[in-house]
Amino acid sequence: MYKSIVIGTGPAGLTAAIYLARADLNPIVIEGIQPGGQLTTTTEVENFPGFPQGIMGPELMDNMRKQAERFGAEFRSGWVEEVDFTKQPFKVKVEGGDELEAETVILSTGASAKYLDIPGEQDNIGRGVSTCATCDGFFFRGKKLIVVGGGDSAMEEASFLTRFASSVTVVHRREELRASKIMQERAKNNEKVHWALGRTPLEVATDEKGAVIGLKVRNNVSNQEELVEADGVFVAIGHTPNTKFLGTQIEIDKHGYIVVMSGTSETNIPGVFACGDVQDTRYRQAITAAGSGCMAAMDCEKFLEGSMVHDWSKN
User: Fold this and answer.
1) 146-157 b/e (C-beta count within 10 Å ≥ 16 → b)
2) Catalytic residue among 136, 277, 280, 299
3) For a disulfide at 194, which of 169, 185, 255, 281, Cβ 3.0-4.6 Å?
4) Which residue of the set 117, 123, 135, 207 is catalytic?
Protein backbone atom coordinates (compact mmCIF):
# COMPACT_ATOMS: atom_id res chain seq x y z
CA MET A 1 0.00 0.00 0.00
CA TYR A 2 1.25 3.46 -0.93
CA LYS A 3 1.24 6.56 1.22
CA SER A 4 -0.01 8.58 -1.73
CA ILE A 5 -1.11 8.13 -5.33
CA VAL A 6 -0.97 11.08 -7.72
CA ILE A 7 -3.27 10.76 -10.73
CA GLY A 8 -2.07 12.96 -13.60
CA THR A 9 1.29 14.26 -14.79
CA GLY A 10 0.75 17.87 -15.76
CA PRO A 11 2.50 20.72 -13.90
CA ALA A 12 0.21 20.19 -10.88
CA GLY A 13 0.71 16.44 -10.56
CA LEU A 14 4.46 16.55 -11.13
CA THR A 15 4.94 19.38 -8.64
CA ALA A 16 2.93 17.41 -6.08
CA ALA A 17 5.10 14.37 -6.81
CA ILE A 18 8.29 16.38 -6.29
CA TYR A 19 7.14 17.65 -2.90
CA LEU A 20 5.85 14.25 -1.76
CA ALA A 21 9.02 12.48 -2.86
CA ARG A 22 11.25 15.01 -1.06
CA ALA A 23 9.19 14.34 2.07
CA ASP A 24 10.12 10.63 1.76
CA LEU A 25 6.52 9.65 1.04
CA ASN A 26 7.49 7.69 -2.10
CA PRO A 27 4.41 8.53 -4.19
CA ILE A 28 3.32 6.56 -7.20
CA VAL A 29 2.28 8.73 -10.13
CA ILE A 30 -0.21 7.47 -12.72
CA GLU A 31 0.31 9.03 -16.12
CA GLY A 32 -2.43 8.66 -18.71
CA ILE A 33 -2.51 8.84 -22.47
CA GLN A 34 -0.95 12.32 -22.55
CA PRO A 35 1.95 12.37 -20.07
CA GLY A 36 2.81 15.95 -19.24
CA GLY A 37 -0.66 17.30 -19.95
CA GLN A 38 -1.54 20.16 -22.27
CA LEU A 39 1.95 21.67 -22.13
CA THR A 40 3.24 18.81 -24.27
CA THR A 41 1.18 20.26 -27.15
CA THR A 42 2.71 23.72 -26.66
CA THR A 43 5.85 24.81 -28.46
CA GLU A 44 7.71 27.58 -26.61
CA VAL A 45 6.71 28.54 -23.06
CA GLU A 46 7.86 32.06 -22.19
CA ASN A 47 5.80 32.85 -19.09
CA PHE A 48 7.03 30.13 -16.73
CA PRO A 49 9.39 31.76 -14.19
CA GLY A 50 13.05 30.81 -14.29
CA PHE A 51 13.49 30.52 -18.04
CA PRO A 52 14.43 33.98 -19.37
CA GLN A 53 14.89 32.63 -22.91
CA GLY A 54 11.77 30.47 -22.74
CA ILE A 55 11.57 26.68 -22.82
CA MET A 56 9.76 24.16 -24.99
CA GLY A 57 6.63 22.75 -23.33
CA PRO A 58 7.63 19.07 -23.65
CA GLU A 59 11.11 19.84 -22.30
CA LEU A 60 9.69 21.64 -19.26
CA MET A 61 7.45 18.69 -18.43
CA ASP A 62 10.27 16.20 -18.98
CA ASN A 63 12.46 18.19 -16.57
CA MET A 64 9.70 18.13 -13.93
CA ARG A 65 9.30 14.37 -14.35
CA LYS A 66 13.04 13.75 -13.98
CA GLN A 67 13.09 15.94 -10.88
CA ALA A 68 10.30 13.89 -9.29
CA GLU A 69 12.08 10.64 -10.21
CA ARG A 70 15.32 11.93 -8.73
CA PHE A 71 13.67 12.16 -5.30
CA GLY A 72 12.06 8.74 -5.51
CA ALA A 73 8.67 9.15 -7.20
CA GLU A 74 7.54 6.02 -9.04
CA PHE A 75 5.71 6.33 -12.37
CA ARG A 76 3.20 3.99 -13.91
CA SER A 77 1.54 4.39 -17.31
CA GLY A 78 -2.13 3.63 -17.72
CA TRP A 79 -5.63 5.02 -17.72
CA VAL A 80 -7.42 5.14 -14.37
CA GLU A 81 -10.72 3.40 -14.95
CA GLU A 82 -12.27 3.50 -11.51
CA VAL A 83 -11.69 4.69 -7.95
CA ASP A 84 -13.14 3.69 -4.60
CA PHE A 85 -13.05 6.47 -2.02
CA THR A 86 -15.76 5.01 0.21
CA LYS A 87 -13.23 3.80 2.79
CA GLN A 88 -9.54 3.72 3.51
CA PRO A 89 -7.28 2.53 2.10
CA PHE A 90 -8.49 4.16 -1.10
CA LYS A 91 -8.47 1.98 -4.20
CA VAL A 92 -7.44 3.07 -7.70
CA LYS A 93 -8.05 0.68 -10.59
CA VAL A 94 -5.73 1.13 -13.57
CA GLU A 95 -6.47 -0.27 -17.02
CA GLY A 96 -5.24 -3.83 -17.34
CA GLY A 97 -6.71 -4.85 -14.01
CA ASP A 98 -4.13 -3.48 -11.58
CA GLU A 99 -5.67 -2.19 -8.35
CA LEU A 100 -3.54 0.10 -6.22
CA GLU A 101 -4.19 1.06 -2.61
CA ALA A 102 -3.15 4.25 -0.85
CA GLU A 103 -3.80 6.25 2.29
CA THR A 104 -4.20 9.45 0.25
CA VAL A 105 -4.91 10.38 -3.36
CA ILE A 106 -4.12 13.59 -5.25
CA LEU A 107 -6.30 14.27 -8.29
CA SER A 108 -4.51 16.30 -10.96
CA THR A 109 -6.15 15.04 -14.12
CA GLY A 110 -6.53 18.47 -15.72
CA ALA A 111 -9.11 19.79 -18.13
CA SER A 112 -9.12 19.11 -21.85
CA ALA A 113 -9.71 21.96 -24.25
CA LYS A 114 -12.68 21.40 -26.53
CA TYR A 115 -11.83 21.33 -30.21
CA LEU A 116 -13.83 21.85 -33.37
CA ASP A 117 -12.93 18.42 -34.82
CA ILE A 118 -12.45 19.79 -38.32
CA PRO A 119 -9.73 19.00 -40.89
CA GLY A 120 -6.42 20.78 -40.35
CA GLU A 121 -7.06 21.52 -36.68
CA GLN A 122 -5.14 18.80 -34.85
CA ASP A 123 -2.34 18.85 -37.44
CA ASN A 124 -1.63 22.51 -36.69
CA ILE A 125 -1.88 22.65 -32.90
CA GLY A 126 1.14 24.66 -31.80
CA ARG A 127 1.75 25.68 -35.41
CA GLY A 128 -0.97 28.26 -35.91
CA VAL A 129 -3.83 26.69 -33.95
CA SER A 130 -4.09 27.31 -30.21
CA THR A 131 -6.54 27.07 -27.32
CA CYS A 132 -4.73 29.56 -25.04
CA ALA A 133 -4.39 33.24 -25.89
CA THR A 134 -2.39 33.94 -22.73
CA CYS A 135 0.11 31.23 -23.69
CA ASP A 136 0.51 31.94 -27.39
CA GLY A 137 -0.77 35.43 -28.17
CA PHE A 138 2.70 36.97 -27.97
CA PHE A 139 3.90 34.92 -30.95
CA PHE A 140 1.36 36.60 -33.25
CA ARG A 141 2.43 40.19 -32.86
CA GLY A 142 1.22 42.22 -35.83
CA LYS A 143 -0.67 39.25 -37.32
CA LYS A 144 -4.30 38.69 -38.24
CA LEU A 145 -6.07 36.23 -35.95
CA ILE A 146 -9.34 34.36 -35.62
CA VAL A 147 -11.11 33.44 -32.39
CA VAL A 148 -13.77 30.75 -32.68
CA GLY A 149 -16.53 30.86 -30.08
CA GLY A 150 -19.40 32.95 -28.79
CA GLY A 151 -19.13 32.77 -25.01
CA ASP A 152 -17.36 34.85 -22.37
CA SER A 153 -14.09 32.95 -22.91
CA ALA A 154 -14.10 33.81 -26.62
CA MET A 155 -14.78 37.50 -25.93
CA GLU A 156 -12.02 37.58 -23.34
CA GLU A 157 -9.56 35.83 -25.68
CA ALA A 158 -10.43 38.18 -28.55
CA SER A 159 -9.96 41.30 -26.42
CA PHE A 160 -6.68 39.99 -25.01
CA LEU A 161 -5.28 39.12 -28.43
CA THR A 162 -5.78 42.68 -29.71
CA ARG A 163 -2.77 43.60 -27.57
CA PHE A 164 -0.62 41.78 -30.11
CA ALA A 165 -2.60 41.21 -33.31
CA SER A 166 -3.34 43.73 -36.03
CA SER A 167 -6.90 42.42 -36.12
CA VAL A 168 -9.01 39.68 -34.51
CA THR A 169 -12.07 38.18 -36.21
CA VAL A 170 -14.60 36.37 -34.04
CA VAL A 171 -16.18 33.42 -35.85
CA HIS A 172 -19.36 31.96 -34.39
CA ARG A 173 -21.90 29.61 -35.94
CA ARG A 174 -24.87 31.55 -34.60
CA GLU A 175 -25.90 35.14 -35.26
CA GLU A 176 -26.27 35.73 -31.52
CA LEU A 177 -23.46 35.49 -28.97
CA ARG A 178 -23.75 33.51 -25.74
CA ALA A 179 -21.40 35.85 -23.88
CA SER A 180 -22.60 38.14 -21.11
CA LYS A 181 -23.63 41.62 -22.17
CA ILE A 182 -20.63 43.32 -20.56
CA MET A 183 -18.17 40.99 -22.31
CA GLN A 184 -19.93 41.49 -25.66
CA GLU A 185 -19.82 45.26 -25.32
CA ARG A 186 -16.16 45.21 -24.38
CA ALA A 187 -15.31 43.25 -27.53
CA LYS A 188 -17.64 45.24 -29.79
CA ASN A 189 -16.14 48.52 -28.60
CA ASN A 190 -12.65 47.34 -29.55
CA GLU A 191 -11.84 48.65 -33.02
CA LYS A 192 -9.49 45.74 -33.70
CA VAL A 193 -12.23 43.14 -33.23
CA HIS A 194 -14.23 42.14 -36.31
CA TRP A 195 -17.13 39.74 -36.66
CA ALA A 196 -18.01 36.73 -38.81
CA LEU A 197 -21.22 35.54 -37.18
CA GLY A 198 -23.52 32.93 -38.64
CA ARG A 199 -20.52 31.00 -39.98
CA THR A 200 -19.82 27.31 -39.37
CA PRO A 201 -16.09 26.38 -39.29
CA LEU A 202 -15.23 23.73 -41.89
CA GLU A 203 -11.45 23.49 -42.10
CA VAL A 204 -8.23 25.16 -40.97
CA ALA A 205 -6.71 26.30 -44.25
CA THR A 206 -2.98 26.15 -44.98
CA ASP A 207 -0.73 27.11 -47.89
CA GLU A 208 1.59 24.85 -49.85
CA LYS A 209 4.25 25.18 -47.13
CA GLY A 210 1.82 24.11 -44.40
CA ALA A 211 1.42 27.57 -42.83
CA VAL A 212 -2.04 28.52 -41.55
CA ILE A 213 -3.71 31.07 -43.82
CA GLY A 214 -7.19 31.15 -42.34
CA LEU A 215 -10.40 29.29 -41.64
CA LYS A 216 -12.79 27.90 -44.22
CA VAL A 217 -16.37 28.49 -43.11
CA ARG A 218 -19.89 28.04 -44.43
CA ASN A 219 -22.12 31.08 -44.45
CA ASN A 220 -25.28 29.77 -42.80
CA VAL A 221 -27.48 32.26 -44.68
CA SER A 222 -26.14 31.88 -48.23
CA ASN A 223 -24.82 28.33 -47.68
CA GLN A 224 -21.66 29.40 -49.54
CA GLU A 225 -18.13 28.52 -48.43
CA GLU A 226 -15.85 31.40 -47.52
CA LEU A 227 -12.26 31.82 -46.39
CA VAL A 228 -11.69 34.04 -43.36
CA GLU A 229 -8.03 34.95 -43.73
CA ALA A 230 -5.75 34.84 -40.70
CA ASP A 231 -2.29 33.81 -39.56
CA GLY A 232 -3.57 31.96 -36.52
CA VAL A 233 -6.77 30.36 -35.20
CA PHE A 234 -7.64 30.38 -31.49
CA VAL A 235 -10.35 27.91 -30.46
CA ALA A 236 -12.27 29.21 -27.43
CA ILE A 237 -15.26 26.93 -27.02
CA GLY A 238 -14.54 25.80 -23.48
CA HIS A 239 -12.82 23.06 -21.50
CA THR A 240 -13.94 19.70 -20.18
CA PRO A 241 -12.51 18.71 -16.77
CA ASN A 242 -11.31 15.11 -16.71
CA THR A 243 -13.51 13.85 -13.89
CA LYS A 244 -15.76 11.19 -15.44
CA PHE A 245 -13.83 8.32 -13.85
CA LEU A 246 -14.68 9.66 -10.38
CA GLY A 247 -18.37 8.86 -10.66
CA THR A 248 -20.36 10.60 -7.93
CA GLN A 249 -17.87 10.16 -5.10
CA ILE A 250 -16.23 13.58 -5.34
CA GLU A 251 -18.22 16.81 -5.21
CA ILE A 252 -18.06 18.65 -8.52
CA ASP A 253 -19.71 21.85 -9.73
CA LYS A 254 -22.24 22.15 -12.55
CA HIS A 255 -19.45 22.30 -15.12
CA GLY A 256 -17.71 19.18 -13.83
CA TYR A 257 -14.83 20.83 -11.95
CA ILE A 258 -13.84 19.39 -8.57
CA VAL A 259 -14.92 21.56 -5.65
CA VAL A 260 -12.19 22.23 -3.07
CA MET A 261 -12.36 24.00 0.26
CA SER A 262 -11.42 27.65 -0.27
CA GLY A 263 -7.69 28.26 0.10
CA THR A 264 -6.86 24.55 0.19
CA SER A 265 -6.75 21.48 -2.04
CA GLU A 266 -9.15 19.52 0.17
CA THR A 267 -12.14 17.80 -1.45
CA ASN A 268 -15.27 16.60 0.30
CA ILE A 269 -13.47 13.33 1.14
CA PRO A 270 -10.74 13.57 3.81
CA GLY A 271 -7.49 12.28 2.36
CA VAL A 272 -8.40 13.06 -1.25
CA PHE A 273 -6.99 16.28 -2.67
CA ALA A 274 -7.30 18.07 -6.02
CA CYS A 275 -4.98 20.46 -7.83
CA GLY A 276 -4.41 22.00 -11.24
CA ASP A 277 -6.94 22.61 -13.98
CA VAL A 278 -9.31 19.89 -12.77
CA GLN A 279 -10.34 22.28 -9.97
CA ASP A 280 -9.42 25.63 -11.56
CA THR A 281 -12.26 27.32 -13.45
CA ARG A 282 -10.50 30.64 -13.80
CA TYR A 283 -6.73 30.76 -14.36
CA ARG A 284 -5.66 27.48 -16.03
CA GLN A 285 -1.99 28.41 -16.31
CA ALA A 286 1.05 26.18 -15.88
CA ILE A 287 2.38 28.25 -13.00
CA THR A 288 -0.92 28.31 -11.08
CA ALA A 289 -1.27 24.56 -11.64
CA ALA A 290 2.23 23.99 -10.27
CA GLY A 291 1.45 26.17 -7.25
CA SER A 292 -1.71 24.23 -6.50
CA GLY A 293 0.29 20.99 -6.82
CA CYS A 294 2.57 22.23 -4.06
CA MET A 295 -0.51 23.01 -1.93
CA ALA A 296 -1.94 19.54 -2.49
CA ALA A 297 1.32 17.84 -1.51
CA MET A 298 1.62 19.90 1.67
CA ASP A 299 -2.03 19.30 2.57
CA CYS A 300 -1.49 15.60 1.92
CA GLU A 301 1.63 15.47 4.09
CA LYS A 302 -0.14 17.17 7.00
CA PHE A 303 -3.07 14.78 6.64
CA LEU A 304 -0.72 11.80 6.82
CA GLU A 305 1.05 13.25 9.85
CA GLY A 306 -2.31 13.58 11.59
CA SER A 307 -3.23 10.01 10.66
CA MET A 308 0.04 8.72 12.06
CA VAL A 309 -0.47 10.58 15.31
CA HIS A 310 -3.99 9.17 15.51
CA ASP A 311 -2.79 5.62 14.84
CA TRP A 312 -0.04 5.81 17.46
CA SER A 313 -2.50 6.98 20.13
CA LYS A 314 -4.40 3.72 19.74
CA ASN A 315 -1.37 1.54 20.52
Assistant:
1) bbbbbbbbbbbb
2) 136
3) 169
4) 135
